[in-house]
Design a protein that fits this description.
By secondary structure, the protein is an alpha/beta fold. It is 46% helix and 13% strand.
Length: 242
């Protein structure tokens, strides 16, 4: 048995966790371990987030399909949550271009099934473990309009970058009409009035309607080896590995 695992099990025993907490911690670890093993099978790509409720004929789904196609043409894997809506649209574009189309799905009460346009898939039990993998999988992040789930993923990555828990990688919010009101709230209420965020914090993301900007950003970073991960590099101890 690995020494680190042995020490972890000894620590659990010392802390006298009850059986339910031990079982829970093992489930957490299993989701994370399986996820880390999975993302090591493909090079870092572009994670695409957005609503599962948008229909294929919506303008944003059409845009997500086009983005997936362009990213695949340029050799970038496309990673999504594996569900319908924006996720399916991005996977579809990538799949049709012959790219690596990855779906990291989540078990939900209303049964979110994996979409048919993935070349690689995995199902998670916990949202937090899935978010770790959607983050570590990528060198660029793209957020289309979405609901609470999309906002949760957006704010998670935003705070990690803000607090230097991960490097500041390109982060795009697609759809000016959708995202500008939120950005205005951030500026007027949080930055200017309440001063709960700093002046530079809103520069972490870029709001645009031009998906070509996403492709250009991914191309600028290039194609890390399948054996590399940008977040394993500790640049002058500025940030820890997520």
């Amino acid at each position: 048995m690995d020494e680190a695992v042995t020490k972890w099990l000894e620590q659990i025993a010392d802390e006298k966790l009850n059986a339910e907490d031990v079982e829970r911690s093992l489930r957490y670890a299993k989701d994370l371990e399986r996820g880390l093993a999975k993302i090591r099978t493909y090079a870092q790509g572009v994670s695409v987030f957005g609503s599962a409720r948008l229909k294929p004929d919506s303008k944003y789904c059409k845009l997500a399909t086009k983005l997936g196609f362009l990213l695949a043409q340029n050799g970038h894997p496309v990673i999504t949550g594996g569900g319908p809506g924006i996720m399916e649209a991005a996977n579809k574009g990538c799949y049709e271009a012959g790219g690596r189309s990855i779906g990291l799905n989540i078990q939900l009460a209303h049964e979110q099934h994996i979409n048919p346009y993935v070349t690689d898939e995995m199902e998670f039990h916990y949202f937090f473990a899935r978010k770790v993998m959607l983050t570590m999988s990528s060198k660029v992040y793209v957020f289309f309009p979405g609901g609470f789930g999309t906002m949760d993923e957006f704010s998670e990555i935003l705070i990690l970058m803000q607090e230097a828990k991960m490097p500041k990688m390109p982060m795009f919010l697609i759809g000016k009409s959708f995202w500008k009101p939120l950005d205005k709230y951030f500026y007027e209420k949080m930055e200017r009035q309440m001063k709960t965020i700093a002046k530079g914090d809103r520069s972490i993301y870029r709001i645009t309607d031009d998906i070509e900007e996403v492709v250009e950003a991914a191309n600028k970073i290039g194609h890390p080896s399948i054996y590399e991960n940008l977040y394993n590099k500790n640049h002058n101890n500025k940030f820890p590995s997520i």
